[in-house]
Amino acid sequence: MKKLLFTPGPLTTSRTVKEAALEDMGSRDEAFISTIRFIRDELLQLGHVSKETGYETVIMQGSGTFGVESVISSAVGANDHLLILCNGAYGERIVKMAVVHRLQHEVLRFEEDTITDPAAVQQYLAAHPHITHVACIHSETTTGLFNPIQEIGTICAASGKTFIVDAMSSFGGVDINIPACHIQFLVSSSNKCIEGIPGFAFIIAQRDALEKTKGQARSLSLDLYEQWHGLEASGQFRFTPPTLSMMAFRQALMELREEGGIPAREKRYRTNKSVLDSGMAALGFKQYLRPEIQGHIITSFLYPDDPGFHFETFYRSLSDRNFVIYPGKLSKTNAFRIGNIGQIFPEDVKALVQAIGEIMQTEKAIS
Ligand SMILES: *Cc1c(COP(=O)(O)O)cnc(C)c1O
């Protein structure tokens, strides 16, 4: 029996998405070139933008981090100053990128169990007018909270800052209106809420901001401008493209359409989340975050008080029953995570909760 992944990615995908990756595909074949075109256009639509309104999609080989690093290392010029808003491991990852690429940067940190406070961002920007770029995580997968990107984007726009958003684990599962959030660079990847297989990241960028990145990259392969320029000039990639992953992604985009687009997918994920919440609460599990700031993508559950609880045993027992959950990533608290995204339906979540209940019963009996 197939395993169901209750993780933040890679996710459970449909059989038809995987089947779309079965045929070998030449990178210069017309069928592939038109697939690139379809994917780039469809992603713009999902973000409520278009070429006509001044936006572009750039596809970058690699995992999601490669896409974020491409933007961070290309968009922040030698005289620019990046402010990184941090309340979890993914924000800290951007800090590491800034260090590696020796960017002028500053970090505004918030506790892991609180959202990024727009008023604090506004104050910080007012006190540090040299800041040119602001980077923020939308769905902080470390905990599962949603940062208020629309409020932060509005503040950035008012003072002319370039706004970079890592929407890796939310784009496709949350309706994000890129212009309304004043985002210049949004990054996500093939294997999150669009429900494709791993292989690439994508960047939806405002063309003006993208054009300014010319000549600024600190890396050849992650050069955002040259990657875009290559796609525009020849319709092709500079280096070997993730052909099969893109064929699968094309199918995933069509299945997203069939499901009813992002609003329908968001609704399914929200239903998954509410089934999970009520089921886990009934088993006595407590969540790490206050419900007001918790998103519907992934949830952090605290280890039960029971001294007989061992995460590794718990994980293995669930995996033996074909349910794959995720360890925690909190800096100070023991927790595990359960994702609601991917080809996961409310009945799957019910089955997971039932399995967790059974495992807790037998573990109690043993300890
Ligand atoms: C998944 C994820 C990433 C990218 O991780 P990769 O392992 O490089 O694909 C980046 N940011 C967030 C918020 C994520 O959830």
What is the strand and helix layout of this fold?
Blueprint: E1 4-5, H1 15-19, H2 30-46, E2 55-61, H3 64-75, E3 82-86, H4 89-100, E4 105-109, H5 118-127, E5 133-137, E6 139-140, E7 145-146, H6 149-158, E8 162-166, E9 185-189, E10 200-206, H7 207-211, H8 224-234, H9 243-259, H10 261-282, E11 298-302, H11 311-320, E12 323-324, E13 326-327, E14 335-339, H12 346-366
Parallel strand pairs: 1-12, 3-4, 3-5, 5-8, 8-9
Antiparallel strand pairs: 2-10, 6-7, 9-10, 11-14, 13-14
Helix pairs in contact: 2-9, 5-6, 9-10, 10-12
The structure holds pyridoxal-5'-phosphate.
Pyridoxal-5'-phosphate (PLP) binds next to helix 3.
Q: How many separate helices?
A: 12
- Supply Rg: 21 Å
Task: Give the spatial strand order of the biggest sheet.
Answer: 2-10-9-8-5-3-4
- CATH A-level architecture of the largest domain: 3-Layer(aba) Sandwich
State the distance separating the first and last CA atoms.
30 Å
CATH topology of the largest domain: Aspartate Aminotransferase, domain 2
Q: Based on DSSP secondary structure assignment, what is the total number of beta strands?
A: 14
- Poorly predicted runs of 5 or more residues: none
SSE order, one letter for each helix or strand: EHHEHEHEHEEEHEEEHHHHEHEEEH
> How much of the polypeptide forms β-strand, as a percent range?
15-25%
Largest sheet: 7 strands, mixed
CATH class call of the largest domain: Alpha Beta
Instruction: Tell me, briefly, the overall form.
Output: globular
Class based on secondary structure composition and strand pairing = alpha/beta
Q: What is the residue-averaged pLDDT?
A: 96
CATH superfamily placement of the largest domain? Type I PLP-dependent aspartate aminotransferase-like (Major domain)
- Helical content stands at 40-55%
